[in-house]
Known about the structure:
Blueprint: H1 25-28, H2 30-42, H3 56-68, E1 78-81, H4 94-115, E2 121-125, E3 141-145, E4 150-154
Parallel strand pairs: 1-2
Antiparallel strand pairs: 3-4
Amino acid sequence: xxxxxxxxxxxxxxxxxxxxxxxxxxxxxxxxxxxxxxxxxxxxxxxxxxxxxxxxxxxxxxxxxxxxxxxxxxxxxxxxxxxxxxxxxxxxxxxxxxxxxxxxxxxxxxxxxxxxxxxxxxxxxxxxxxxxxxxxxxxxxxxxxxxxxxxxxxx
Length: 155
């Protein structure tokens, strides 16, 4: 088994990095998940929901918990992955998908307004539990440029 090594530690001002503890991969790959969660608690984060179609109220409560513990305030920017708005168990019509995504976005905006109003928030990025998806490795240097409306990931 290859040795797991940490990526370089982010410097102050680095905007975001990716960690997605949702889904079933934690049982298969517990060491990277545990190390990633430890780094999230200490340094940074970026968020998305899973294929479980979490309701907006749940999304707000999770972000509220992060805000109450000071985690949201550590992020230079918040990049929210485009939600997977369907599943084989719960197929949604186009109007239902749009409503689900809009409700989730409002929940994120409410939590950010309450706990970190200065943070730029980017929605609809194709990473995490969505199709199609971009792969952004844990620890990748990521810059959010809200003026030019761009996100740059350095692999």
